# Entry
Amino acid sequence: MTITIIGIGLIGGSLAITLKENGFAKKIIGVDINPENIDKAYRRRLIDEDMKMEDAIPASDLIILSTPVDVMIKLLPQILDQVTDQVVMDVGSTKMNLLAKIKDHRNRKNYVATHPMAGTEYSGPEAAVPNLFDHNCTVICNPEESSSAALEKVKALYASIPMSILNLDAKSHDVHTAYVSHISHISSFALALTVLAKEKDENRIFELASGGFSSTVRLAKSSPEMWVPIFKQNRDNVLDVLDEHINQLARFRSILIKKDYQKFHELIQESNEIKRIIK
Amino acid sequence: MTITIIGIGLIGGSLAITLKENGFAKKIIGVDINPENIDKAYRRRLIDEDMKMEDAIPASDLIILSTPVDVMIKLLPQILDQVTDQVVMDVGSTKMNLLAKIKDHRNRKNYVATHPMAGTEYSGPEAAVPNLFDHNCTVICNPEESSSAALEKVKALYASIPMSILNLDAKSHDVHTAYVSHISHISSFALALTVLAKEKDENRIFELASGGFSSTVRLAKSSPEMWVPIFKQNRDNVLDVLDEHINQLARFRSILIKKDYQKFHELIQESNEIKRIIK
# Structure
């Protein structure tokens, strides 16, 4: 089938590679307001053709919306205005506001809300990689609001990668992603700023930083263009988890001030429970 | 040469593999108060022989102290009491208190304070891996307090791996490691506790957690037996960096409360500077 990808960055570009490689897509049309991204997408051979959005929609069987989430909220109603029998899916990190926006659209059933749980700290077409999504989980939100034909097409796409599918309502999705994704990014941004603020001697960071440090700050390389809109859309959930995170750090602070090393030991043991959950 | 390793865990065991593999050590003697560790060390073929510490010291050319840092502070004076021409080195993560403890020991010059900047979140002999240290940096603290013969032997050991060497005074070492290692661990412990506290549905964490989350919480698997003594030894520096980290998180919180997304964008851009430093 012919697939249009609107927003050829890390996620859109990686899907382009995967879906072309496994034969799910016969042709990939790229849409991007940034001509430089289109140029890079051709050079990386991510797309077969580029078009303006209004020309790409009628030429496609499936449209994948993979822009930053604030742009999705603007584009999705316009895309749905134009579709006839095309299926539309997004791959965004927040869902409540997006789904509220098109809840009563006459073509709502042509659209499936999805979130493949994968990514890296890099962005743009040059960051696209094969196998980014393999064997990870994708969320489908509010599937009852989509037609079964649209759902089947989108499920077949994810099965072709392959990814497993988890159904969640939009509200639960936004709460869970605040926990397992969004707070990690704020933690990394803050850690990078902490070290950059305290450690004036950058050569020392470079020489001394081992795998542990790199691992906890790598998300601090993430793009503000992608992440600020996510925090804006999911502000209340993120604030809730951020408050809890600051409280947890304050517990460690208070324990250090009181030199209560027995309690410190207990807290580390408690946090070790994450072993059961994360491989 | 014959090398005694006191404390056969992740670091001691990994050194045992490397130094035997590259021929720097002809024989490795293992010392560990935990008989289970000795048993595991034999099964993993990390050691050629095990002895009590007082028998191992005279039988060795070089003694590597790789216990948790609180145990080092107890053992190092005892080891130095007993050495004749043996060289002693430690591989601990904190240095100020340890070096103060043996500053005036009559055999101080036989000892070299080192800290190879490498590790994983796992511990014990079963966590020992080949190539853990390759091409990383090792710190040598206060080299002027060691004899040149002892220094040469220890430098030859690290060159054999190979690791590069950075000389720092003990105080600077403890300040820098608080920035580039210790705070990352507290951040991970707190993040794990945050998610465990807020996310009651563990299956959801398991299904949804992608690489980003795993990367920021992996250090939360680290052992309290190793880490509490480090935080105890380096308490003042860690508190200082932890305060700064909480302040940075509070900035993100305040920005979210005020919905100042322009400022959020600027902070992320600022934190992106870490790209220049971390590969």
Remarks:
- Chain B has two domains: 2-169, 173-276.
- The longest helix of chain B spans residues 170-198.
- Chain B has a mean pLDDT of 95.
